[in-house]
Amino acid sequence: MTLAPFIRKLRGPLRRLRETRMFAQALRSARHPILAHIVPTRRCNLACSYCNEYDHASQPVATEEMLRRVDQLAALGTSIITASGGEPLLHPELDRIIARIHQHRIIATVITNGYLLTPERIRRLNRAGLHQLQISIDNLLPDDVSKKSLKVLDQKLRWLAAHAEFDVSINAVVGAGIGNPQDAVTIARRASELGFTVTAGVVHDDSGQLKPVSEPVRAALDQVLNMRKPLFSFVRYDRFQYNLVRGLPNEWQCRAGSRYLYICENGLVHWCSQQRGYPGIPLARYTAADLEREYRSAKSCAPYCTINCVQKTALMDELRENPRETILHVLSPPEQRLDPAQLPLSVRMLTGIFLHPRRGRWFSQMAERLLKLK
Ligand code: SF4
Ligand code: SF4
């Protein structure tokens, strides 16, 4: 038994404060990226059949170059930087990159397939100041579609439970090509048992669009969404996913290229992993004018987009621009839209005070000042 689970719990409120600060910054101003994905290597040690984000040959990006990119993202005012890939743990100095993100007081997260985790690697990530690590698990047993399986990864999850001082989030994946939809429910239960956060993901095609899903898949997704921790239970209704799995489009403004940036291994800024090439500008030359232009640029792929992290960043801007409607969006059961008058009095008062265009800015500035944490 190690002290890590105790430290993880103890530092939980500090991580929530950092997230609150990020949230306050996002509400105060739309002139900085909320989230950026960086790719320390395009190479992956697996070959999931639905994935278009890896190869088996690329070398890791030089560490000094990755550190420069982190500095450039910090200069743009980025709040969260996520290392993804390929498989980011294939980068031998990932912890140096994480440490540089942390030094800038930016939230550092990693998305990994988990295969390369060892107790020593987890301790290195602790020392670097990692905030959260996310693993997507696709099935219980490896098959031709994916080897990201609970059977293979369970030992890694136990090591994380024993040694990680950072948050761990398990994404239980459902969708076309994923064998048994109920696997996602078993995966989510195991993750909860180990004290990890649970999210649900829907597999997209190679342009980031929805693949049609069956009734059992929808039922499994609903079961996983209902399993979330009580603190977040008020956002049970992820309207984006709810609509997509029913083949319905979403009406939203994608802010990719502005509030969300995808930096490929060559250091170019793209809208997202599924829309590479737009705008395709080197990060070193990306300016406030680019952020401003992409904030409002139209994306024809938006109605059936499944990129959940970009949708979440867009929700923050909806909240700033149209608070009452967005609160309704989050609180209403999808099949029955609440009237604003049906919102609890406390919610109406809080939105009136904190999300008022002028008063809200003052409150978020105050929150940000109070929460200036390392
Ligand atoms: S582990 Fe991740 S990056 Fe690697 S092939 Fe699978 S989905 Fe793609
Ligand atoms: S809507 Fe935005 S996040 Fe989704 S695929 Fe298009 S550019 Fe990417």
Would you give an account of this structure?
Helix content is 42%, strand content 12%. The protein has a 9-stranded mixed beta sheet with strand order 6-5-4-3-2-1-7-8-9, with helices on both faces. It folds into 2 domains: 4-312, TIM Barrel, CATH 3.20.20.70; 333-372, no CATH class. The model is unreliable at 230-234 (pLDDT under 50). It has helices spanning 4-28, 63-75, 94-103, 119-128, 150-163, 182-193, 215-225, 239-245, 288-296, 308-321, 323-331, 345-354, 359-370, and strands at 35-38, 80-83, 107-112, 132-137, 167-174, 197-202, 260-263, 268-270, 279-282. The protein is globular. The two termini are 28 Å apart. It contains 13 helices and 9 strands. Strand 4 (132-137), helix 5 and strand 5 (167-174) form a beta-alpha-beta unit. With 374 residues, it is α/β, with parallel strands linked by helices. Bound molecules: iron/sulfur cluster (2 copies). One iron/sulfur cluster is lined by residues 44, 46-48, 51, 53-54, 85-87, 113, 148.
